[in-house]
Amino acid sequence: AMEKSYVSMFLLLVAISCALAKDVGKKETKETTAKPKLPQTLSRGWGDQLIWTQTYEEALFRAKHSNKPLMIIHHLDECPHSQALKKVFAEHKDIQKLAEKFILLNLVYETTDKHLSPDGQYVPRILFIDPSLTVRADITGRYSNRLYAYEPSDISLLYSNMQKALKLLKTEL
């Protein structure tokens, strides 16, 4: 009799744990299908409908082979200046539309490539690189001490610099 109750207790525990495991599985799939993960992570809030590259190397490769300019945004999640610029950038309809013509990369870490910090490692900074893989030193923000810095109030300058990057592309290649 004792053995029977152990066996039935064991079977009951197995049944309960199976039922619980099934519920856990259901919850996970519901959450993962509800929102797409990939675009969110790569855009980091700079424009979820835009196509962002994952690495600097991939971005250079795509710029070179698609003949599109590359726009690199260096920022940090906990930097208030980066956050403010990101908000204005993401909400600016014309910038979001124009950004579709670029290979896009946003970085929350510094690269070892010295070309990406020609005048220092500050954030936010935005650089343009043409398909010949040249950093455009002629497309800068309004600060002489931080050439590639932009603030939310500089959004129209950033927009015209994006147009400039596309225009240079047509006239030089």
TrEMBL record:
Signal peptide positions on this chain: 1-21
Predominant location category: endoplasmic reticulum
Lineage: Eukaryota, Metazoa, Chordata, Craniata, Vertebrata
Alphabetic keyword roster: Endoplasmic reticulum, Secreted, Signal
Gene: Agr2
Keyword Endoplasmic reticulum set for record: yes
Annotated compartments: Endoplasmic reticulum; Secreted
Species assigned in the record: Podargus strigoides
UniProt similarity note: Belongs to the AGR family.
Name this polypeptide is given: AGR2 protein
Gene Ontology MF term list: dystroglycan binding
Gene Ontology cellular-component terms listed: endoplasmic reticulum; extracellular region
UniProt key word Signal: yes
